[in-house]
Write a structure and sequence with these properties.
11% strand, 418 residues, 10 strands, 15 helices, five-stranded mixed β-sheet, alpha+beta
Length: 418
């Protein structure tokens, strides 16, 4: 650790270190703690002092941008500050933390959860909840957002947007603060702790057994066979909307009779493969055959559509509101209810619907169902549902969809759009 009088003439004579040889620190003879760190490409002024039992080194700036005189004065100021017990490094970090805006925090949080394999739907939910509901806060430093403001905004959103949207916006905000608290120790706790959360109720609205036949007739009246098949496929698999919409042929094994979902809710760590009942295999074979006529042989989707720009995509709004049909998630409720009525155990239902077992369910951690066993259980559910649909045809399959050539009869793209 060389000690020299730091002057311009002396600094100009000090050579850079060789690449890969590290750095050399030179300290001033006149001002204790003032120094210069020399590397392979730069000479940087520093100041170093013991404070509160630990050695703290503070970077001042590069020689060339800073003159020796300016750097010396800054070093004197920093040494006086540290002598008072104030840590300049901590103060700088605190200042940086105080300058982080909510928009920057949102970007950091989204980048982090994307690295963890978060599904696109979750990213979109953050953009909608924070980017729309809290748009006027995006350019504000996060430390300025107060608890009373969060409580007031939550109440306002509940009145205007609905209680669910209000809770969702504040949950997203809380998650951003949690991420930023991990990134910077000086970020304070989330102001959402002052929010009086609305009570949330799990919607459980399965189509009743007595209404399934009516539901089936409404589905069969849909002109677009892709949308029609989607409705049936979702009911007989109990898949979440996005999992059913985005089925690709690469994920389907018709010979084995299975479907793989590589990135469901929960991300890649929750990927799963399930057996398919006979009726779903018939639907997929029909779609694989009939899709070629309108979407081309290279179409990767089982349930394709054209977006507003005319580009080939998968379905994104796959239910017919005008026909009084329930949302796809209500069909998931219906499937789960049917599985219970068909006599499946809760463990089998959790696997087929890709649900996590309840907290503390020790037995579930020991059970690993055989795939062929699950195939039998899946078929039991399908047979139960078919008995309630009162489907026509000796084999229990929907006869109206077997011979419809809707897509190949010159229909324009708008008829099969999202």
């Amino acid at each position: 650790m060389p000690v020299i009088k730091l002057t311009k003439a002396a600094l100009d004579k000090i050579p850079f270190t060789e690449t890969g040889k590290g750095q050399v620190a030179y300290y001033d003879t006149d001002l204790k703690g003032f120094g210069l760190v020399v590397g392979a490409t730069a000479k940087t002024f520093i100041v170093q002092k013991d404070i509160l039992g630990r050695t703290r080194r503070v970077t001042i700036g590069r020689y060339g941008t800073w003159t020796v005189e300016l750097a010396r004065r800054e070093a004197q100021h920093l040494l006086v500050t540290m002598d008072k017990g104030i840590d300049p490094v901590r103060e700088r970090r605190l200042e940086q933390a105080n300058n982080v805006t909510l928009g920057e925090g949102l970007a950091i949080h989204l980048e982090r959860i994307q690295r963890k394999g978060c599904v696109a739907g979750t990213i979109q939910r953050y953009k909608e909840s924070v980017g729309n509901q809290l748009k006027d806060w995006l350019n504000r430093p996060m430390h300025e957002i107060t608890r009373s403001e969060c409580r007031a905004r939550h109440t306002q959103l509940g009145e205007v947007r609905g209680e669910g949207a209000a809770n969702q916006a504040m949950k997203c905000l809380r998650a951003i603060y949690t991420t930023m608290m991990k990134e910077n120790e000086h970020i304070h706790s989330s102001p959402t702790m002052a929010v009086h959360w609305y009570k949330e109720r799990r919607r459980q609205e399965p189509v009743a057994d007595g209404m399934l036949a009516d539901w089936y007739q409404k589905v069969m009246s849909i002109h677009n066979p892709v949308r029609r098949d989607y409705q049936l496929f979702t009911l007989f698999t109990g898949l979440r909307r996005n999992d059913a919409c985005t089925v690709k042929w690469a994920d389907v094994d018709l010979d084995r009779g299975s479907l793989h979902r590589p990135k469901p809710k929960g991300g890649e760590d929750r990927a799963f493969t399930v057996p398919l009942p006979d009726i779903c295999l018939d639907i997929l074979r029909r779609r694989k055959r009939d899709n070629v006529a309108f979407f081309g042989k290279d179409c990767p989707w089982a349930f394709p559509a054209f977006d507003s720009q005319g580009n080939l995509s998968h379905m994104v709004m796959p239910y017919e509101k005008r026909k009084g049909l329930p949302t796809p998630h209500r069909l998931r409720d219906t499937y789960t209810t049917a599985a219970n009525a068909a006599g499946l155990s809760p463990y089998d239902i959790d696997v087929l619907t890709n649900h996590r077992p309840p907290m503390g369910a020790v037995t579930a951690g020991y059970i690993r169902q055989d795939f062929e066993y699950l195939r039998v259980q899946q078929q039991r559910v399908a047979d139960y549902i078919k008995s309630k649909l009162k489907m026509e045809g000796p084999d229990g399959t929907p006869t109206q969809t077997n011979n419809v050539h809707y897509l190949s009869q010159g229909r324009s793209r708008k008829h099969v759009s999202n």
